[in-house]
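Re: [help] complex structure
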Amino acid sequence: MITTDIAIIGAGPVGLFAIFETGLLKLRCHLIDYLPQAGGQLSEIYPKKPIYDIPGFPTIQAQELIDNLLSQAEPFKPTFTFGERVESLNKIREKEFIITTHLGTEIHAQLVVIAGGLGCFEPRKPEVIGLENFENDKGVSYMILDPEKYRNKKVVLAGGGDSALDWAIHLSDIASELTLVHRSESFRGSPHSVNQVLKLAQENKIKVLLNSTLKEVQGKNMLENVTVLNTKTHHVEKIDVDYLIPLFGLSPKLGPIADWELNIDKNAIEVNIEDYSTNVPGIYAIGDINNYQNKLKLILCGFHEAAIMAHSAYKYIHPGVKYTMKYTTVSGVNTF
Amino acid sequence: MKNNVTITVINSGGEIILEAPNDLGLNLMEFLKASEYEQIEGTCLGIALCATCHVRVLESSPLLNEQMDEEFLMLETLPVSWENSRLSCQIPLNKNLNKISISIPN
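Output below.
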């Protein structure tokens, strides 16, 4: 069990800056993020891209900004849970929240800040009849965590991006039978990967089905076969499988946040613009995940929201205790 | 107007005609987001890395800019795309474009 003053859901730039702002008020933070590292979409999607609208930085690379924010937060000794998705958020009473992740990690906090950006990045699922019946370890996976799971198994991979090609190459030595299903006429991924896949196909280590889409999956309790349609010839093929792995990239979803009795409109959490608190006392929402009149989804606006939220959070955790704001230029940054 | 592009968005409920400025350096994704089309998320901010701004181009005048490799590769990762699929973030609204007619897949 992890105990903290503030649990921050989301370790993107705004969540990271909230550590600093609340740290100045001597509040400790624990951050939870589904991604394996801090930085949110800046680190995951565009780490090398320049950002031009961070005050004081004419230009800064996305990853550099995250590294700087981590350094800035460091004096306040934040702790992190990475690679886990928050599944539930329960308010036991005022100043007592329990957050539970999909792996069962529990975080006890006095206050919760949701800085989840656009939500969790979840795998895109194709429309295939019966697919959901075989999720949760019954034969359908949307990401490969342990390739050894597929040793000596019959595997169908679906997708045409670099991820599908790279995993096809990797699994060709592991699976007993490997089929790669792709809806187009050819692959246009990295030439090296494409050539390798085609070579493995010639050596009969991978069966490549082009112009093909998944139509249906069947089985009793576990997945047993996949039906594939050739969209050019209209030939239908049923393939015996142990595992089907659709690899169609990631897409942002609000996820379980939608079930936490917060006021949500258009995939964003409604907040009070006085302090970015939600309709549930003790829960705040800052950054791209919140919405209010004239909202701008900019990192710099999220930083402002973090500062305002921090002072309101202090009052919630220490009601009646007067706090006079100090300037860091005068008082410095006092580490924990 | 001289500095506008006419954008026709066709969906099951009919068609909506919008006028977008062609001299502000906007791309189609930015304009559709500003017009509150919820399906257009533009998560990666317009650098062809997320495909959350996928549209089908039904008609355009003059012809659109060609797809760059990175746009094509991103569309390739989707479970479904069509010959006329484009990432709207890769379509600049500039003086070369007078009219465009699109639909937005669900």
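The two ends of chain A are 21 Å apart (CA to CA).
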